[in-house]
Amino acid sequence: MHTPTSLEAFEHKEAIEMHSFNPAISLTRGLPQGIDADILLLGVKDVRDILYTVYANNGFPERKIDITVSRDITLYTILLDNDETVSFDRIWDLYYNLYIASTDLDYYESHVTKLITLSSSPSSWQAGPYASTIRFCDEASLKLLNKVWRDAVQISVNRKSSQEWFQKGLQEANAQPNPWKGARRVGWRSLAPLYSRTAGKMLLELTEQHWGTGRSFPRSDDDTSELFPNPSFGVAIRRPSLLTYPTDPLLSFHLAAAIARLHDGSPLKLDDRDGEDNHQKRMYEVARLQFKEWIEAFRLARDKVTLRFEVADCFAFCYTLRHADETGERCAHWYRARVGVEPLVLGEEYGSDGTAPKKFDVVDTATRSDQAGILNLLVAAKPLLKDAPSSTLYTDTAHAIQDMGKYEELLLGRTTTLSTLLGLYPITGLTASKPLNAVDEILTAWQDPAPTPQEGQPEAVGTEEKKESATHKSYGFRLAWKLADRMVWHGQDLPGSLEVKEDDLLVLANKLYFDLFEYPHKVNQLPEEAEQVAHLKKGKRMQYHAGSFAAILTALCKHTQVDPYSLVSKLETRINGYWATVAGLYENNVQQLLAEFLLTMPAEVRQTPINRPSWMGLYSWKDVPPVVAVTIAIPWEHWSAVMNRTRIGDLAVMNGYVAFPHKDKVIEKRVYCDIQIAFGEPVTQGKPDEDDFAIAIDEQNDQEAKCPMIVTFNALTEDFRSDGYVGFRCKRTRHNTDGSEEETQNRFYEYRVPIISPNVHVSKFRPGQTGHKINETHLQGWAARATALETPSPDASFPVTFDDKSENITMLTGHLSITSDKGKELLAAKVPIVLQQFDPFTINIAFGKAKIKKDLILPLTFPAPVTKEGSKTRIARTSGYIEIDAPMVKTMEPVLDDYILPTTLYKQPSTDSITPVTLNTPHINLDTLPILALDDKSRIRFLTTLTSLTFSSRDRQLREEIRRAQDAKKQLDTPPPARLNIKESLFTMFMLASGLQGGQTGLFTLTHPKRGGNHMLFLVSAIRLDPAHGSVVLDAAVLPVTTDLISEHRIDEFLVTLRAVESCTLTVDDAELEAWKKMLPALAERCRTWEHDREKCEYIKTGNVPISLKDGDPVLCSCGMGKLPEGFSPLPLWDDGPSKYATRIAISPVYATALVEKVVDPLLTVEGLQREERKKAKQKREWEEEEERKEKEAKGEKDKDGDVEMAEAGEEDDFDYPSTITEDDEEYKRIRCWNCGKMEGEDGVTLKRCLRCLEARYCSSQCQKKDWKKHKMECEEADVYHQEEQQQQAQPQPQQSS
């Protein structure tokens, strides 16, 4: 397979996670509305993701949705039946509860019996009632499901006898280490954005209850009916497997609506007659309400939804799909699973005339990247993406908290370089922001107690550093990868390809190889340089082997115009030269690398002839291939030792090898990691000395059969010698042990036999296959073009410059030939040329002296993000071209400052229509989101914390610098970045729209005093929860104040009425105004319920989005103007005119991404605050003790033990700390100055309280005066004054704190 095979691949106890933890998300959230969506789910996704996707598309322009999935088919068939006699309660119980009533079990048995008949053959399924919606990618998947259904019926039939083993299986699962692993963190996701410790604890109690009782909510006292095991879970347990994670259904719903106080008429609002205090019951009711609405949406959309089911290894499926897309052949000679020798053969729908999708808008790998490796997935799945800016490949990975901001570590320490060479970028790496909140999750992970070792297990092995790393806290990180050459609109043409020198790529490939493979191969000593490579030691799973590395090399060569055969030949020389210098090491995996390329290398390219062994049957073959298949049958008495987990461990890596005596009388091993395992008896077909000799396996899946274990792998023909051996081994490496020599050497299993042995078979192809596995070199077509690589024209290629020390890309060179008569004329006239840049991919070459209107502007679009800062320009006025050496963009560089929520354009091939596409802004259906009630401020104070978390650690430092400069009345060296100002404006909008700070208004004007005054009006209709993205959203309308509106007096009367309406003016500078205009299209597109008019849309006419950045020009197209819900605003005269020119938008807080910066200031966590308090208290205590000692010494006294009882530093009071602490939280205000932020005790400071409200605290009267302008908006007389009937002055005065 494509990753190293480990013991867990065929260990009989599998880990089964029946339901997803993560709350449902819309799988189409990044796709333009109204365009049909093809979605491939390579990772495990819950049924709720599919149901919620259909639900979230309600109200949007119509689209068809085709999803390839691998689970929950029984539930879909029940939903499609739409049987009125089947209650919602029954559906809920069948899908979620571990134990169900006898009547439910009777229905389940009857329904599944029907499914068994329908799934008896592909033709019978096609003739059934579900075939129009549910299809199978191949016949084997249908057969497997038929077997699962048969097992389920047997459990139902034997329901009483199933009780004992089912209960035992649950107990065994519950006894596993960390049974609640991840539940706390996902509890935050389910409750977002209203997570609290109390609610989180309640949710975990429900999870524990479900796991313990098998029911999602306690039964009523009068319900005494007998319960039986749910066969859906029983099949998983009896395979045998383990339910290793909680299956509480509430963890995957959006539960914030159960806690929030919602507006009357809001979606998902519950009946409050039962009270709002029973949060557990309300969580249960909200989950059921959502599930019911999602089911109804799915049933209504059944004609527009297609679900395709496939059960296969994700890499096997990817490469088989790619092969089918290129050739029409439905088999790529991959095994369908990690264990077994059944080839993956797709159904007829995937043939050359088939209608099944082979290219996708979305490929979601879920958490597979942690097991399979991000690079492996990017290389295998990227070619499955449609050629569109909306096409997205999603990965979910676990990141250590301490790695926040380490962007380059994502891809082996070379994220920028490898992303550029692969043509695939994580979009948030460029935008450094997104309207999705994960900051609370990171804070929750930060504050979680460190994991404790299980009973009988050591805490850690080795140094203190290793002990510390064992308790490192992590958080889940979801990345959206985009096609680099589609992230900016190019009109008809795409930018050219990268041009890389072979020697430069060779150096990079050499470095990548040793980063991946040097570390685990050195079993006797750990090289110092490998100690520094942090990314090699983070996980306990090896994700790459030489075969998958060959695929990575081939993909890099494709995008760089380098011949892979020449490259790998030179790389082999380097690698062999290195291993030859390592004393005592006679293992090498470079043969695996060569084998992958030799499978497709043309004979005329091959530099050396194939060595034909003279002593084996293959000597008589007419055609001796460079690569042959080796099959070893290991007797049961030998391989059974592998199953001893206490000796080997479930992550022991397996590989095969060919070995022979070395000249130094030691055994030299040629290691092959791409192996396949099966169990059964080998069956030969033909004679070994004939070309058509083949091997088949009579597979035995019965654990008690005690049959041989079959190991098969490809090996170089030249490795076979008459005195050689072949073997199989299972060992641990430093990747998956504590790294000690004893661990790596002792935990080891090996089976070795002579090559000439009855247990060894050599054939052209592996068992059950009729050809070699189609790998990356086949699919990239190098065999046909390796000898005829053309030199691209200068305009079609971009030479790449590497840094000599880091082997990373530092610069791209763009070439632009001036072909127009006007351009040639301007060149000849030596007109000045300047560079302009408005996005990270395009540098505009502007001719002319005028600052505003240029004579000619020519865009030069690069295939990767670059910056004009530090660039070099070469102008060939005679030859007629311009070249720019542009440095690669680094994260958070100025050119990315307003690249916050970008939008681009896309021309659909099928219709030739042009559509705007948001790159990092998820689409939402505003009308389905809950509306917050704003009358009770105590119920919405979470908005202050939630929106303030948009400010990253870097932002907070910048804010502090700005404040200090303002206090000192100094001019900043550089103006505040637009990104920070945007966040400040958004924070203000949320605080004033909610009424939490400084009054309440829903009307905002965006004003630039030096550029004509008001540029935009924002009218907020409601604040809605956006639980799928952990955030909130302003349901608003924007009215851009254009020259036409003003000159034609269309809204004059409305503007006059606004003078009497309370509003907020957001004053902006040039950079922030431009950033707002660039963001607006994304804010409108994300909630669009209308379609663009192909004839009138200004985006299509101009080819620009936004339309223009000039003052007075329109920003948004007119397609969405006036399309607002009825009764959107109560403002006077709104419906009479202004609403016709306004567009509905969805405004969310913009959060930093932990991929590129630290999103959390440690002092804003409970842990950080308590640590800071303890530090200050300790310093104060030490100072007091020192003063006391000096005083006693002066008096001639001596200390006496036990005279003074000293409290522990930082001893906590009874304050109930919130989960996150910001400048606006009560605890923060209690211990810090409200103006400068100094803490109580810092520099000897004693805080004083405002005499009027007794709440505000200041370190000095100067700070109080500075803060008065802000504080007077919220300063109210304390209740104590009214009780004692005392009167005080209106102007507050400082008073000593008690």
From TrEMBL:
Pfam families: DUF4470 (PF14737), zf-MYND (PF01753). GO terms for molecular function: DNA-binding transcription factor activity, RNA polymerase II-specific; zinc ion binding. Residues 448-469, 1174-1219, 1279-1298 are annotated as: Disordered. InterPro entries: DUF4470, TF_DEAF-1, Znf_MYND. GO terms for cellular component: nucleus. Keywords: Metal-binding, Zinc, Zinc-finger. Transmembrane segments: none annotated. Residues 1174-1203 have a biased composition (Basic and acidic residues). Residues 1204-1219 have a biased composition (Acidic residues). Residues 1286-1298 have a biased composition (Low complexity). Residues 1233-1275 form the MYND-type domain. The keyword Zinc-finger applies. This is MYND-type domain-containing protein. The lineage of its organism: Eukaryota, Fungi, Dikarya, Ascomycota, Pezizomycotina.
